[in-house]
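Tokens for chain A. Residues wanted.
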């Protein structure tokens, strides 16, 4: 029998606000334990949460960018459970009316196939704290810095069917969030986390199989491996006539296996109810229209513009829009060097500059060669003052701070090429 893998994803994107979802505590990463914890985050009795407007705005931005519906009336609910890093005994989340519903994100796979991924909902919720198991030899510590951090939980329908599609979706989603400026996308620091729900079914069957949920996946590589492992585990069980138990499982990167963490809770277990401390959230049509008019250019649109306007290949346009920093650098260079230099500019940014940055483990933001300097260099190649080969020397000199502009380096080092045939 042919089996088909069915996957639905829940991504938790930490929103890039300055303060938490319901308190004024700062949201910087890496602060010492409990130094960014207010009475509200600690759940002391009598304190009241106040909703962060910026987080709502970011959720609207995201919703509009995936052509979803924005609820004009939504609620916050309490999701009740006990855990040491959750002092309130509940997490404030949204169940009945998520702020964003029914959107989609198109992903482009390696074979150029485009697939529409349906995002059924995205809702706002607060993060929990962290248990620190290795901060003390015999105790577990509790750090509430993360408690109350704003999260947007983005949930797809079970419409993905392979690890390749999952990775492609995650990259596309992360890129979108980066371009919107609503999330820093850092998987190691946990600002972009993903739970994978997976089941299998005979090819052609329409009903869904029993799923398991995989947690603890903090890199794309682990996600890919966990999907492979879990798919095969399902297959083995079914082929041996054993049942699949609906449960939450943890991926262990050391053994490349998954193990049961807890039985799957259902909604009823959490006793969701509307949080009486928070008013219903009413979003006016005006606000939505304003956010829409201020939406930045999205990666797909930018890519198309690079192809149609600047004559770049689809490969180059895709690479240059892989991050907002890269796109920005490229655009600033072209703005000075001129559209006619777009193609060589793409090459210099993607090949020479990228290789040089890579060699020193530097980010584009710390590039010693600025967009303006690179543009100056491109102009001297274009007007034949220097050859491509000499340009590499000039680039190296600019990198090492041996001149403020390409012209200065060319002058100082006598690099002007003579093309007079006489
Ligand atoms: P919960 O919030 O309890 O995890 P949801 O019903 O909200 O459950 O679903 C969470 C995710 O699981 C969604 O992305 C959904 O698409 C996916 N999912 C649900 N059923 C299946 C299934 N049988 N196989 C694969 N994925 C599934
Ligand atoms: Mg879940």
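Reply:
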């Amino acid at each position: 029998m042919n089996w088909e893998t069915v996957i639905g994803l829940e991504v938790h994107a930490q929103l890039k606000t300055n303060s938490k979802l319901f308190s004024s505590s700062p949201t910087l990463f890496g602060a010492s334990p409990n130094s960014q914890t207010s009475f509200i985050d600690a759940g002391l009795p009598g304190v009241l949460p106040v909703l962060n407007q910026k987080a709502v705005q970011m959720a609207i931005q995201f919703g509009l960018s995936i052509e979803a519906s924005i609820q004009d009336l939504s609620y916050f609910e309490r999701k009740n459970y006990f855990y040491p890093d959750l002092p309130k005994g509940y997490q404030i989340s949204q169940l009945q009316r998520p702020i964003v519903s029914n959107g989609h994100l198109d992903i482009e796979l390696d074979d150029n196939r485009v697939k529409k991924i349906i995002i059924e909902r995205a809702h706002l919720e607060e993060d929990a704290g962290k248990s620190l198991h290795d901060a003390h030899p015999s105790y577990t510590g509790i750090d509430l810095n993360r408690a109350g951090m704003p999260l947007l939980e983005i949930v797809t329908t079970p419409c993905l069917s392979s690890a390749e599609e999952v990775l492609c979706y995650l990259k596309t989603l992360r890129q979108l969030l980066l371009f919107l400026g609503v999330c820093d996308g850092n998987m190691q620091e946990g600002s972009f986390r993903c739970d994978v729900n997976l089941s299998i079914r005979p090819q052609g069957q329409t009903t869904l199989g029993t799923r398991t949920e995989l947690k603890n996946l903090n890199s794309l590589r682990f996600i890919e491996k966990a999907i492979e492992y879990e798919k095969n585990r399902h297959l083995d069980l079914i082929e041996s006539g054993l049942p699949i138990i609906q449960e939450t499982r943890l991926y262990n990167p050391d053994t490349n296996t998954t193990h049961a963490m807890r039985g799957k809770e259902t909604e009823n277990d959490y006793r969701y109810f509307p949080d009486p401390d928070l008013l219903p959230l009413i979003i006016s049509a005006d606000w939505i229209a304003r956010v829409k008019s201020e939406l930045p250019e999205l990666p797909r649109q930018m890519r198309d513009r690079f192809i149609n306007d600047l004559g770049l290949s689809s490969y180059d346009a895709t690479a240059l829009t892989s991050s907002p920093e890269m796109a920005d650098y490229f655009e600033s260079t072209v703005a000075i060097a001129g559209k006619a230099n777009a193609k060589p500019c793409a090459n210099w940014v993607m090949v020479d500059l990228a290789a040089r940055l890579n060699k020193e483990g530097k980010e584009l933001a710390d590039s010693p060669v600025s967009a303006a300097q690179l543009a100056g260099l491109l102009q001297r190649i274009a007007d034949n003052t220097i050859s491509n080969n000499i340009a590499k020397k000039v680039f190296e000199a600019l990198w090492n701070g041996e001149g403020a502009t390409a012209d200065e380096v060319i002058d100082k080092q006598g690099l002007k090429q003579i093309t007079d045939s006489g």
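The longest strand covers residues 114-126. Residues 6-10, 155-158, 197-199, 208-209, 211, 213 surround adenosine-5'-diphosphate (ligand 1) (CB under 6 Å).
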